[in-house]
Design brief:
Beta-Lactamase; 8 helices; alpha+beta; six-stranded mixed β-sheet; single chain; 12% strand
């Protein structure tokens, strides 16, 4: 929802990130005789940080460039021109823009790391939920299969996921290490996506023996699960394997 709102309001965001540095630099110009250049630069860097925190790279870069331009216009001599005669001011201007761009990249990296941690926590929750079901005294095999099928469909963003007591002979198979093989070649699922024109086999194993399989369908859109997601899928399937082997289902 937050990403949708950001996309919807992006034009206004970009306008704001271009104009806010103008307003801040104009205000600083009113007291430029009373503040140091370093103070003015730090205030403008804070503006860039605020723009970068939106997670929009273009907004962060635009704020950095806009801050540099208006710093030059209002706070370096000769004032109210884009000319810079003092080499020290040229250096400060360049550093302001570079620092702004660097802050933008760091902010985006932090958001990506946070998103990755959230995804990993979600994967772990799915595995733990299945493990808790297995750990119950007498888990129902049908309930376990339904639970894991739901988890797999959400994890890999599948159109459909069904369990087959006897593994069908399919060309594309998810391997125990999380790789995907299509015939004799390995598919880079994270880059090229899962096949959309055929079903994919996720074997269900117990003690190294195949005791069934989940049949995965991703036909309506290209899904690009990473290696971590596919390894979690294998772990979930193995939870079903232990129940199937125990109950003989």
């Amino acid at each position: 929802m937050a990403d949708f709102l950001l996309l919807r309001n992006r034009p206004w965001l970009l306008v704001a990130t271009a104009l806010v540095p103008l307003g801040v630099a104009a205000l600083l110009a009113l007291v430029r005789d009373d503040i140091s250049t370093a103070t003015a630069v730090l205030v403008l860097v804070l503006v860039v940080v605020a723009a970068s925190s939106t997670g929009d790279r273009a907004a962060g870069f635009l704020a950095a460039v806009s801050s540099g331009l208006f710093f030059d216009f209002f706070l370096t001599q000769p004032y109210e021109t884009l000319a810079v005669t003092d080499p020290a001011n040229v250096e400060t201007l360049v550093l302001l823009v570079l620092v702004g761009i660097g802050v933008t990249e760091l902010a985006l990296w932090g958001r990506h790391q946070q998103a990755g941690a959230s995804r990993s926590l979600g994967y772990l929750d799915g595995v733990l939920g299945a493990a808790e079901t297995v750990a119950s005294r007498d888990p129902d095999a049908d309930d376990m299969v339904a639970l894991v099928a739901t988890e797999l469909q959400a994890l890999l963003r599948l159109d459909r996921c069904r369990f087959a007591p006897v593994a069908p002979d399919l060309r594309t198979v998810v391997q125990p290490d999380g790789t995907v093989r299509q015939g004799s070649r390995e598919i880079e699922a994270g880059r090229h996506g899962l096949p959309t024109d055929e079903e994919i086999l996720l074997p269900v194993r117990s003690g190294g023996r195949v005791v069934g399989a989940f049949v995965l369908t991703a036909a309506t859109a290209v899904r690009r699960p990473g290696r971590e997601q596919l390894r979690v899928a294998v772990l979930l399937a193995d939870q079903v394997g232990s129940v199937v082997a125990r109950t003989g289902t």
